[in-house]
Amino acid sequence: MKWAKLDGIDSKNYLLYRVLMWVIAPYSNLPVDHRLKNILGAERGGGGDPGWEIECIENVNGNTDFRVWADQDISCLDDEELIYDSATFYKAVQETLEAYAVAHPARAGEIAEIIKFYGLDLIKK
């Protein structure tokens, strides 16, 4: 994956990666995990501009899934809302962070700390 590109991403995961690029990309001098910490932390969800939302939900098996929504008028994707299992979600978070670090090397140290803090470095690819 390259930052801001969906090349090489399975089409069923386009919505997830598109929204994660909005979640992770700081549009100011805010920390990279400014929005991500709400999703992965105690709040277990969040939303924002340009029209996205992620909600942590428990499925019938008691496992955690993530509901991802994006305004179709903005995302230009066929799907407006999908549910992703936690393995797919956390892998996408890690890959998106890593792609951001490559595109913005000045923030690579901060991103490495975020990956370690949330245990994303323990995810098998």
How would you characterize this protein structure?
The chain has 125 residues and is an alpha+beta fold. The protein has one domain (11-117). It has helices spanning 14-24, 36-40, 72-75, 86-103, 108-117; strands at residues 45-48, 52-58, 64-70, 81-85. A four-stranded antiparallel β-sheet has the order 1-2-3-4.
Distance between the termini: 13 Å
The parts where pLDDT drops under 50 for at least 5 residues are none
Anisotropy-based shape: globular
Helicity range: 25-40%
| Tally of DSSP helical segments | 5
Report the sheet-strand fraction.
15-25%
Side by side, the strands of the main sheet go 1-2-3-4
Q: Give average pLDDT, whole number.
A: 88
Number of separate strands: 4
Secondary-structure element sequence?
A: HHEEEHEHH
Q: Can you tell me the number of structural domains?
A: 1
> What structural class do you assign from the helix and strand content?
alpha+beta
What value does the Rg take, in angstroms?
14 Å
Q: How would a crystallographer describe the biggest sheet? A: 4 strands, antiparallel
